[in-house]
Here is the input.
Amino acid sequence: MKHFDDTESLITVRDWLRFAVSRFNESKLFFGHGSDNAFDEAAYLILHTLHLPLDRLEPFLDASLTHGESEEVQAVIERRVRERLPAAYLTHEAWLGEHRFYVDERVIVPRSFIAELLHGQLAPWIEKPDEVSSVLDLYSGSGCLAILAALAFPNSRIDAVDLSRDALAVATRNVADYELAGHITLIESDLFAALEGRTYDVILSNPPYVNAASVAALPPEYQAEPALGSGEDGLDATRQILAQAKAHLNPGGLLLVEIGHNRDVLKAAYPTLPFTWIDTENGDQFVFILRREDLPDRQAPISPPA
Here is the structure.
């Protein structure tokens, strides 16, 4: 392609950064897996490729690249443009706050408002974090929330559940990286199916919640991930969680579920449930909290739209 015929004139980090931003904008890439603009994503990919600190661009802007480094930077820029893969799949890493996790195409790129809440040990809803003895992470994927829960509640056992063996293989690697294999149990299960008799102080979940119409309109970067959809209105997984969670919560236990932009649809389906909607630094009211005592023994939601 024409864009890659004259890259010999690109010498410094600054040159390649300018080039990458131009290419990303020209190609109308979609951002949303760790960055929200072409500059930040280009800087991240270049710094990562050159094995430089991700938070220190300025000292290296005028550093000259070797021929081999230029080839590596050019290759990652080209893959991002040509394959429309999320940056996390190119670097095999994703960050939630200060915590790094391994990722690849077997798992959804970690991004969750629940992560921020775990950094704060679920205050004020959990008053004594040291007394939390058991946590369940449903739809665990890469295991990132289970790991953050283990760090937040060091005296608890963590069960991390996913139906995908591929996802659990990635989670196994992340759990090992954090040396938490004795603290986190990875379970292959369709939601609560393999958890008979197990109860928890906290159940948290970031399930699929994209509705059918939105799935059809997703940009290629999101379509590169495992399935994000959850039925016509995006609430199929959440309905199952609400129907079964009470039986697996200890008295006073807490249920946290992330549901994206589906708040109004969920409230219409469950008009009597006293949802508490959480505000976070990165987005407001995308996560709800319910206590065990808030949940009837069996949910009877309004049917999703035909």
Q: What stands out?
A: The first strand starts at residue 94 and ends at 96. Residues 2-91 form a domain with the Helicase, Ruva Protein; domain 3 fold (CATH 1.10.8).
